[in-house]
Design brief:
By secondary structure, this protein is mainly β. The protein has two domains: 175 residues, Jelly Rolls, CATH 2.60.120; 74 residues, Sandwich (Jelly Rolls). It is built from six helices and 20 strands. The strands form five sheets. The protein has a six-stranded antiparallel β-sheet with strand order 1-2-3-10-5-8, with no helix packed on it. Strands 12-13-20-15-18 form a five-stranded antiparallel β-sheet, with no helix packed on it. A four-stranded antiparallel β-sheet has the order 14-19-16-17, with no helix packed on it. 41% of the residues are buried.
Length: 330
């Protein structure tokens, strides 16, 4: 699937165009481990009925992948266009040092095991030719017994791990957990990890696309060839003191909070409202269950993502609903 090229628009924006929630056209990415569960769970219309889509990029601002507004008076504008030209009006204050929108949000559909991989830590990323990437996973749906692979089993040393690469037994060194829908886990740069088959996951991450694969279950890619591995970079990046982590325990409504993003889970009763919380900043909402509605009557249902601009009016829950709210730290 060909990624969109870098786009530039010249659009005359109506005054107050950003008061309503902003939604974007998802970018669907083919992956050897993907499927079409987005059709079943979120009633999405996926392209190419015979192809596996493992990722839906919901909010993205990168050179060759751009979220494009798909509704309302801002239709056709890219996220980068809004960030560069209407930053304070739409997103609020305090973002002068960010040349790009700083986070990337995806839905992952894993019908097969993803590669065992790692993202480079901040202090090593540049020297390895990549970008640091800290992320979190929210389990939106899971098959019974499906496994996440996170961290190392107790007692596995770097030497043990290097030998397992040579022997093709890396999976025996990696710790596994079996989460249920509604649980989440924080994946800091340097944490060895893989998503097993049978998950639908909301991923909130730094705006980065650097992944080092250390083991890919000896399978072939979509082109029929073994997928590229990054053994040297992986060994440099892995935290070899990260043993057998469990799923995270929420701190009140907060599922994850770090230097790059905060994710809160809001349980809304019917007719309860949700707003940005921070009066001078935007937030991103992901509807996990139920439905919410804007003051103009626009409805957002399970599986939809929206950017709630700075100064936007609250949204109302149409039924008992669960919403993830993603904000940027001060």
């Amino acid at each position: 699937m060909t990624s969109p090229q870098k786009l530039h628009y010249s659009i005359t924006y109506p005054i107050n165009a950003a008061v309503e929630p902003i939604t974007f056209q998802p970018l669907y990415m083919e992956r050897i481990w993907g499927g079409r569960e987005l059709e079943n769970v979120y009633s999405r219309s996926l392209p190419h009925s015979d192809r596996p889509f493992g990722e839906s990029w919901e909010i993205v601002d990168r050179d060759h992948e751009q979220s494009i507004v798909n509704h309302g008076p801002l239709t056709g504008a890219t996220l980068q266009d809004l960030w560069q030209n209407r930053r304070e009006e739409i997103f609020g204050t305090g973002f002068a040092n960010h040349p790009r929108f700083p986070i990337l949000i995806k839905v992952l559909d894993a019908r097969d095991d993803l590669s065992i991989q790692v993202h480079p830590p901040v202090d090593l990323a540049e020297s390895l030719g990549g970008e640091p990437k800290t992320e979190m996973w929210y389990i939106a749906d899971a098959n019974p017994g499906a496994k996440l692979y996170v961290g190392l089993k107790n007692g596995v040393s770097r030497e043990d791990f290097e030998k397992s690469i040579q022997d093709g037994t890396v999976a025996d060194c990696v710790h596994a957990v079996s989460p249920t829908p509604g649980e989440s886990i924080f994946i800091a740069s340097g944490r060895l990890h893989a998503i097993g088959a049978g998950f639908l996951i909301h991923e909130i991450q730094q705006n980065s696309d650097t992944t080092y694969r250390v083991f890919d279950w000896n399978r072939l890619g979509l082109d029929g060839k073994p997928r590229e591995l990054h053994v040297e970079e992986s060994l440099a990046s892995i935290d070899f003191n990260d043993f057998e982590p469990g799923m995270d325990q929420p701190l009140g409504e907060t599922l994850a909070s770090c230097d790059y993003f905060q994710t809160d889970r809001k349980h809304l009763a019917e007719n309860e409202t949700i707003d940005n919380g921070q009066t001078h900043r935007f937030s991103i909402l992901s509807v996990v269950e139920g439905a919410i509605e804007s003051q103009s009557g626009r409805r957002f249902e399970k599986g939809q993502f929206l950017l709630l601009p700075h100064g936007a009016s609250p949204l109302r829950a149409m039924e008992n609903s669960v919403v993830l709210q993603i904000t940027l730290p001060h």
